[in-house]
Task: structure prediction
Amino acid sequence: MKAALIVVLSLSLVSTGCTTSRWVSLPQPPGTSAPRLEIGEKVTLTMKSTDRQRLKVEAVDASTLTGTTLDSPRGRVVQVSLADVESMTATRFSGGKTLGLAAGVVAGVLALRVAALYATVNTCEDCAGD
Result:
């Protein structure tokens, strides 16, 4: 049971460490330059109408963003006018964060195992001395 709990906890920690989110500045005035995005990044757009849309970026230029929808209907290619976007955040995979978090989890599990082994050895030595 303890092992299963450790695995579930480790997976949840590692999954949250795999990405990093950043705010993307929109060009002012709209249409003057393209936002700094990379193909394949996942973005969350907050529209001026307060609607939200999540896309995987396929192309971006000074006036439009083309991407595949990540929400329902999933997989549909849409083109969004950047003039209609209020704000944008981009999410990207972070290998450094993931590696650091995984190493920390492994080190923590090993430290717990060593502490448990040390406690067992000291308990047995105390019992044998009586």
